[in-house]
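Rotation project, supervised by the postdoc (A.L.). Task for the rotation student: set up a whole-complex structure prediction and record inputs and outputs verbatim in this book. Inputs entered:
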Amino acid sequence: MKRLGELERAVMDVLWESAEPLTVRQVGARLTDRDLAHTTVMTVLDRLAKKGFARRQRDGRAWRYCAAEDQETYVTELMMHALDQTGDRSAALASFARRVSDSEAQVLRQALESLGEIARD
Amino acid sequence: MLPPVLLLAVVAVGTVPAAAALASARWPSRSPAAAILLWQALGLSWGLAAVGALVGLGAVHTRWGVAGGALSGAVHALRHATLEPTADALIAVGRLAFLAAGAALLALLCWVLLAASAAVLLARRRHRVLLSLLAHGDPKVPGALVVDSPEAAAYCVPGLRSRIVVSAGTLALLDAAELAAVLAHERAHLRARHDLVVLPFCALGRAFPRSRLVRQVHAAVALLVEMLADDRALRHRPARELATALLRVGAFAGQAPSGALAAVPEPEGETAARVARLLAPSPRLPALTSALICSAAAALVALPIVVLVMPV
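Outputs recorded:
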């Protein structure tokens, strides 16, 4: 199971790096260091498509796969959730420090300076 | 039947001003654990008493207290509720109305708790899947995952397969000692399952989305849980490291150039309150006071339960 998760990630990296949709064979060819069976790559791509992370389109007799969204979109989703942008303070995640208003950020920066710490932004 | 019902009604109504008083009290930051226990007791006591008072009004006198009386009340009322406008029928309809209101409140409270739990589990699963595709380890934060984002974020994903996550922005912002303090804080959350403490109050917010008091209570409990994790982290790290980490992350969260995230600020002063508490700690509550608070919490929960099952 852990190996499968790790494979999904490697395959997504391939899809993200590619400018155009790839066939199963092309994806496998870009994971040369792993020596994967064709069917393994196909299974992983199929799983990713089912989960909505990859999209596939028919190209002649083969399927071509591409990433559903670029990497930044998913990173933004993670951060939106992490910084609790929905504002409903759901108990799903626990943030170390939540986002503050501009005026409070000012107060916090002054507090840092009074501690003799130079802001390292 | 009236005295026990009256008692339940007094508890149900009385817990509301008590919650308002506790929300603005200053002592909870001196003993977050005791305060959280009192919040839980207040919430549970209110729920039991409010449901109990409603069904109690529909109950008939039995040996089995309000709870048993409610059941026979329902049977009794159903038998006597006819369309003829006799006194018996009117009383029966009135009984049924109170019983239904009590059952509806109980169902609502159970439902929001289930719905909130389900929403949390779904959100965490999605989050973990995304992390498995995007996050990577970093020797600067052993045991934690790093997401390549300029935002200053540090958080944990609680659950059976828990994760601690820091953003690349946080890695750049904090020094090694501050990072260690952040990790200690997050590990405290995970170990003590603080998310389970906050969940019911989050659910209460769903049941009463317009109530200012419920929002205040939710925020108060969330802040107390942060203070609890701060205290726990202090066992391993100096207060100053944790304080400067908080100040930095607080001051620079959302200052990233990406601008993709619109700021929804936290209630004013939470981070500042935590920092002040770390740098200039007030003495903890005396042991006797804490013991009194815990006894009060136990009494608060015991009272409606006893009234509900006590034969009269």
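Student's summary: The radius of gyration of chain B is 24 Å.
Supervisor addendum: The longest helix of chain B spans residues 87-134.
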